[in-house]
Design brief:
Layout: H1 19-38, E1 42-43, E2 49-51, H2 52-55, E3 67-68, E4 83-85, H3 90-99, E5 108-117, E6 129-138, H4 147-161, E7 167-173, H5 174-184, H6 189-196, H7 199-213, H8 218-228, E8 231-232, H9 237-242, H10 249-264, E9 273-276, E10 289-295, E11 305-310, E12 324-330, H11 331-340, E13 354-356, H12 364-376, E14 381-383, H13 390-400, E15 404-407, E16 417-420, E17 426-428
Helix pairs in contact: 1-4, 5-8, 5-10, 7-8
């Protein structure tokens, strides 16, 4: 009796593409890496797993992490899991920097393209397994502000290289929001900022009501909301902020930083950047510049990338102050959304450029030699796997989208010929000079 067949089915939250779609994703990765490296960022790769204590070192206890256990563990082994899959690339990067500190050159500019895993409920545009493309630059003690403009520029160029719908970068600065709320006399700044961050979801009335429930009177609640509604295409956000009549040293510091960043990104195409003081994400982590990337024509899908400046990357692992700024492109989310929306054209089903026909088994050696010669000429070449009828071999090339079919001699004394599958033209050719 045959073994029971296990019917395959997709695992929710773990994307899997056909070859012609995966080929496009690989092209994206190549283009992104090329942009990162054009600015001098070097690649690192950390293990898929980290010690659980490392993953929780920065208090990320709200993340649903996958732990690692052996299925065939000894019955007497009652120890708890020690390792888990990383849920982002930031914590592994912090551990890596601390561990290799004495061997790194600072400012340390790195990029990292790897999968991450989160045990959350899968939904449109959100996955349990996904590829992230991160770049960070960190330095010992102090990091020059010009990197706050360089990282968004790198991010924008990476998106441009993908030939996707227009992208808009929205920038803010944590010091502005925090200083503004201090100037208003708000005591529980963290809770208020978390409420303001919900503006897109609950709208202005919802924010006012939520702030009122926190004990703020309506006048103060409206003043808190006012900053989150400031959005400009240049550094005129400072004038709008000034008109609110609130000031503090921290806010002025943040204004100067954001003006510097906006002015140094003025070379990007018009409409590509926006000062948006409603960007309040990561308030408990970022310390200065904050940014999010959106598809201008598809804003409802949410941010497709984000990042910001932080004061201390690896403080949990080493007694060194390591300020930095980093951005992350959520490749899998963006790719899946654009694929579903029809913005991605599938590539060829195979990288093969030339299919060499096998006339019959007695001529396999000559056909194989032809294939090797063409490969040395730089072509991707397949030799058909059997001496089937020529019609079947041509059908195989057509189905896989192979552009050229090579006919080695079927008889002694015959010349080589090559067929252009697109034009239908077939001509004599020399594998040594083609």
């Amino acid at each position: 009796m045959a073994d029971k067949i296990h019917k395959p089915r997709p695992i929710s939250g773990f994307p899997e593409w056909l070859p012609e779609i995966r080929a496009v994703e690989m092209q994206w990765l190549d283009k992104i890496r090329a942009v990162f490296e054009s600015y001098g960022y070097g690649s690192i790769e950390t293990p898929s797993v980290e010690e659980i204590d490392v993953l929780l070192a920065k208090g990320e206890t709200d993340k649903e992490i996958y732990t690692i256990n052996r299925l065939q563990a000894e019955e007497s082994d009652d120890s708890e899991a020690r390792l888990a899959l990383h849920f982002d690339l930031t914590v592994p990067f912090a551990r890596y920097t601390a561990q290799h500190f004495n061997n790194l050159t600072f400012p340390f500019k790195r990029y990292q393209v790897q999968k991450s895993w989160r045990g959350e409920r899968p939904q449109k545009g959100r996955f349990r397994e996904f590829t992230q493309c991160d770049i960070d630059v960190i330095n010992v003690d102090n990091l020059p502000l010009h990197f706050d403009a360089e990282l968004p520029a790198v991010m924008f160029e990476a998106y441009q290289a993908l030939d996707i719908p227009p992208v808009e970068l929205r920038l803010s600065n944590r010091k502005i929001v925090q200083g503004y709320l201090q100037g208003l006399g708000v005591e529980d700044i963290t809770t208020v900022t978390r409420t303001l961050d919900k503006l897109d979801k609950i709208r202005a009335d919802g924010v006012i009501n939520a702030l009122s429930e926190l004990g703020l009177d309506e006048t103060l609640a409206k003043k808190c909301l006012a900053i989150a509604e400031i959005k400009t295409d240049d550094d005129s956000f400072a004038d709008k902020l000034s008109s609110l009549g609130v000031s503090s040293p921290l806010m002025e510091e943040g204004i100067a930083e954001l003006k510097f960043v906006m002015q140094n990104l003025a070379h990007l195409p018009k409409g590509s950047i926006k000062a948006d003081l409603g960007i309040i994400r990561g308030f408990d982590y970022y310390t200065g510049t904050i940014l999010e990337a959106y598809l201008k024509d598809m804003p409802k899908i949410g941010a497709i990338g984000s990042g910001g400046r932080y004061d201390d990357l690896a403080g949990s692992f080493i007694n060194q102050k390591l300020p930095g700024i980093g951005v992350s492109l959520g490749l899998t989310r963006l790719f899946a959304v654009l694929l579903e929306a029809g913005h991605i054209t599938p590539a060829a089903k195979a990288p093969t450029q030339v299919l060499v026909i096998l006339p019959d088994e007695s001529r396999r050696a000559e056909a194989a030699a032809t294939a090797r010669t063409l490969r040395t000429r730089g072509y991707n070449v397949e030799l058909f796997h059997s001496d089937a009828k020529v019609k079947k071999q041509l059908s195989y090339a057509e189905k896989k989208g192979i552009p050229f079919v090579w006919f080695p001699p079927f008889k002694d004394g015959q010349a080589h010929e090559v067929k252009d599958m697109t034009q239908g033209e077939q001509l004599k050719a020399d594998p040594e000079n083609w």
